[in-house]
Design brief:
- By secondary structure, the chain is an alpha+beta fold.
- The chain contains 10 helices and 8 strands.
- The chain folds into 3 domains: 154 residues; 50 residues, SH3 type barrels (Roll); 86 residues, Alpha-Beta Plaits (2-Layer Sandwich), CATH 3.30.70.
- A hairpin with a 4-residue loop joins strand 7 and strand 8.
- Helix 1 packs antiparallel against helix 2 and helix 2 runs antiparallel to helix 4.
- The N and C termini lie far apart (131 Å).
Length: 342
């Protein structure tokens, strides 16, 4: 290879790199700005994913054209063409896998429906696309894929028998996602007592983030057999109650009016509470030292009830003190009988 050939190769390679850099820095950002103006989020994902590959694409094309200009023998040219073809098929496979898996995380525009964003779906999609890409590469090289598919079928049966527990968790995870009853971000409570927000549903287990921010890992097969209370279905709004006891000499109509006013004040002051919700009070029992009632308050989601409950109790206590409403506590009268004197 002469100096002129090397210089020519460098020129083609540099030209390919320059064109790829122009696309990376100017053309793709322009399309990215156009995509950002639309309400569809998938086009942003497509532009962002393709942008990472434009420089390698044009650089590979420049190197290929430069080598072709050197007048290489036919066998080397054949290898070069196949190598470039394999590179483009592989890159297209990676792009397709990332885009389709990424779309599973995109919120549907104009609706409250969220597509399943669990890693189990994304991983399965990626594996399927990678396998299709591999088969396309083999087919492009003249390699028959029929014997390979037959071998995979027989081998897959053997693997299925050896990995029964793993496959049980896998299909249980798919069943959980397909049912739509447990989704990413939902707050759930298990029949075993654990509760938390659903962080992820993977091929083996489901992860819950507890209130203490630690992760609870539940095998999918176990979760599928449990009784699960999902506080986000059918709505995220939750109504909780606060139990209160007032003295027997209290005017119950007055107690009801004051308590409803405090509920209204709390709802207006707290962002976590549902606005314009009609306060509800129910007297339900004659206790040992007080008449029992429950105050019902609606909040936006399960975790919001704790802050709202705390604020409501503080406001109610202050208001009861101002209104002269007594919150009695249990008292006990003890009679001491003196023994007979000798």
């Amino acid at each position: 290879m002469s100096k002129n050939d090397i210089l020519q190769l460098l020129i083609y390679s540099a030209s390919g790199f320059a064109v790829g850099l122009i696309f990376h820095k100017i053309v793709m950002p322009f399309f990215g700005k156009l995509a950002a103006k639309t309400s569809i989020k998938s086009d942003d994902l497509v532009i962002k994913t393709i942008r990472k590959w434009v420089i390698p694409w044009f650089l590979a094309l420049g190197v290929y054209l430069g080598l072709r200009r050197l007048g290489l023998d036919s066998r080397f040219s054949y290898w070069l063409e196949n190598g470039l073809l394999i590179f483009y098929i592989a890159s297209a496979t990676f792009i397709t896998a990332r885009i389709i898996a990424g779309m599973l995380h995109i919120r549907a525009s104009g609706t409250d429906t969220i597509l399943p964003s669990s890693s189990i779906i994304g991983n399965i999609v990626k594996v399927i696309i990678y396998c299709i890409g591999l088969l396309i590469i083999l087919q492009s090289q003249g390699i028959s894929i029929t014997p390979m598919l037959t071998a995979l079928g027989v081998g897959g049966l053997a693997v299925a028998l050896a990995l029964q527990n793993t496959l049980s968790n896998l299909f249980a995870g798919l069943q959980i996602i397909a049912s739509g009853k447990i989704n990413h971000g939902d707050f759930v409570k298990l029949s075993t007592g654990e509760d938390g927000f659903v962080e992820d549903i993977s091929w083996r287990s489901t992860s819950l983030r507890a209130a203490s921010d630690h992760i609870i890992i539940v095998p999918n097969s176990k979760l599928a057999d449990m009784i699960v209370n999902n506080y986000y279905l059918p709505f995220q709004e939750v109504t909780f109650n606060v139990e209160i006891g007032v003295g027997y000499d209290s005017n119950l109509d007055h107690v009801e009016r004051v308590t409803k006013e405090v509920i209204k004040e709390t709802q207006d002051a707290m962002e976590e509470a549902v606005k314009n919700n009609e306060p509800v009070i129910r007297f339900f029992n004659f206790g040992e030292s007080s008449i029992k009632l429950k105050a019902f308050i609606k909040v936006k989601d399960y975790s919001a009830q704790f802050a709202v409950k705390s604020e409501f109790i503080k406001r109610l206590h202050n208001r009861y003190n101002k209104e002269g409403i007594v919150l009695p506590y249990p008292t006990r009268t003890v009679l001491m009988q003196r023994g007979n004197e000798a």
